[in-house]
Design goal:
heterodimer; A: 113 residues; mainly beta; six-stranded mixed beta sheet; five-stranded antiparallel beta sheet; 0% helix; B: 112 residues; four-stranded antiparallel beta sheet
Chain lengths: 113, 112
């Protein structure tokens, strides 16, 4: 069964600090992996996509990494801001022709002043 | 370009009542889906559609019906609401099986 595990479950950091969120996936066949940000009371919004051949990709203060050998991805947030407070969801896509997305349960990040 | 629009945003139902959650997208996406999100459970797939006239069951389909008569609309029907259906419901659409999923704002449903 395809699975995506995220850690930590929740995280509290001070404004301006950095943090790293982890995602382990067991999805076969693997197509790509996306990180989504979900603000309270809103739907998830895609932050970045990682394909099999990519190791690192940045989107502003967000940097995602992917290690296809260990089936791990991370999302690093630099110089956190209060607006980064949200849940971050790791989503794995299966191979071509497969509709199913596999969602992690998310990491709830709280950035405090 | 509105993206994915869900209505209503909030709803309270009594056990046994029926209702339809509306979802519309204006991006001409083939794939549309309905998810429910419960605390500690993550997003779970209820039903999905890969095009007009084509629907299929997801992980938790019991108690829900869908239809897809047009590319734009994908309503979710609760036939006889139960307290276990209290949840936040999200509609999503995407282009193809690898496309970015665009989510609606969600419908918070409470069944009493």
């Amino acid at each position: 069964k395809n699975q995506v595990e995220q850690s930590p479950q929740s995280l509290i950091i001070l404004e301006g600090k950095n943090c790293t969120l982890q995602c382990n996936y067991t999805v076969s066949p693997f197509s790509n992996l996306r990180w989504y940000k979900q603000d309270t009371g809103r739907g998830p919004v895609s932050l970045t996509i990682m394909t099999f051949s990519e190791n690192t990709k940045s989107n502003g203060r967000y940097t995602a990494t992917l290690d296809a050998d260990t089936k791990q991805s991370s999302l690093h947030i630099t110089a956190s801001q209060l607006s980064d407070s949200a849940s971050y969801i790791c989503v794995s896509y299966s191979g071509a022709g497969s509709y199913q997305l596999t969602f992690g349960k998310g990491t709830k990040l709280s950035v405090i002043p | 370009n509105a993206g994915v629009t869900q209505t209503p945003k909030f709803q309270v139902l009594k056990t046994g009542q029926s209702m339809t959650l509306q979802c519309a997208q204006d991006m001409n996406h083939e794939y549309m889906s309905w998810y429910r999100q419960d605390p500690g459970m993550g997003l779970r797939l209820i039903h999905y559609s890969v095009g007009a006239g084509i629907t299929d069951q997801g992980e938790v389909p019991n108690g829900y019906n869908v239809s897809r008569s047009t590319t734009e609309d994908f309503p979710l029907r609760l036939l006889s609401a139960a307290p276990s259906q209290t949840s936040v419901y999200f509609c999503a659409s995407r282009r193809g099986d690898r496309g970015q999923a665009f989510f609606g704002q969600g419908t918070r449903l409470t069944v009493v």
